[in-house]
From TrEMBL:
Any single Pfam family the record assigns to this protein: Flavoprotein
Function: Flavin prenyltransferase that catalyzes the synthesis of the prenylated FMN cofactor (prenyl-FMN) for 4-hydroxy-3-polyprenylbenzoic acid decarboxylase UbiD. The prenyltransferase is metal-independent and links a dimethylallyl moiety from dimethylallyl monophosphate (DMAP) to the flavin N5 and C6 atoms of FMN.
Family membership: Belongs to the UbiX/PAD1 family.
UniProt catalytic activity: dimethylallyl phosphate + FMNH2 = prenylated FMNH2 + phosphate
Domain named Flavoprotein: residues: 1-181
Transferase in keyword set: yes
Enzyme class, first EC level, given as a word: transferase
Binding site for FMN: 9-11, 35, 95-98, 130
Residues annotated as binding dimethylallyl phosphate: 160, 176
Name of this protein: Flavin prenyltransferase UbiX
GO MF annotations, alphabetized: carboxy-lyase activity; flavin prenyltransferase activity
EC numbers, comma separated: 2.5.1.129
Gene for this chain: ubiX
Amino acid sequence: MKILLAITGASGSIYGLRLLEELLRAGHQLTLVASESGLEVCRYETGIELTDAETLKQRWGLPEANLTIRAATDLWAPEASGSAAPEAMVIAPCSMGTVGRISAGISGNLIERAADVMLKEHRPLLLLPRETPFSTIHLENLLKLSRCGARIIPAMPGFYQKPETIDQLVDFVVGKMLDQLGVEHQLFKRWGTAD
C-alpha cells in the first residue's frame, strides 16, 4: 500500500515514528512529511532527525525499505494531486492547528493539501490528535472532519493488556492505527484472546 505519513508539531512524535517503523517492516511504500514544528518536536522528544530517509531506514535495519521524505513546503509533490494520491494518509501526531486548518479547507502546505485530497477522493485519512484537554473548538473541528470521512484515533492507550512499559502503551495506539489501515500486526493482545 502507498501511504503518506505526516508528523506535525504536537507532542507524541513517538507514535508517528513507531507507525513508520511498522509500516516499513510490513513492506509498504511510505512517504514521510513533517511540518517545521513537527521536525523540531521530534528532535526535542526523541533526538531523531526526520530529514534523511537512508538514516531512518538504517535505524531500523531496513536498508531496502521504500521510504521517501518530502518537505512540507513541496506543493508540487505527487501527493498534492488527486491523480497521484496515496492509498491512505495518517497524521500522527496531529496538532490542533493542523486539525483546524484541514477542517477549514486550508491547504497552505503539503500536509494540509494531501489531507484535503484524501477527503475529496474519499480515501482513508487517519488523524491522531495529541492534545488534552480538548477545547470546544477542537471537538467541533474533529467532529467536522469525522463527518467528512476522516478517522479520529486519539492517543488513548488501553490498559486491559496490562502494559509494563511506555513502548507497550505506544504500541497499543499504533496498533489501533494499523487496524484502521487493514495492516496485520502483533503489537497488543486483543481483548478476549488467550494468554
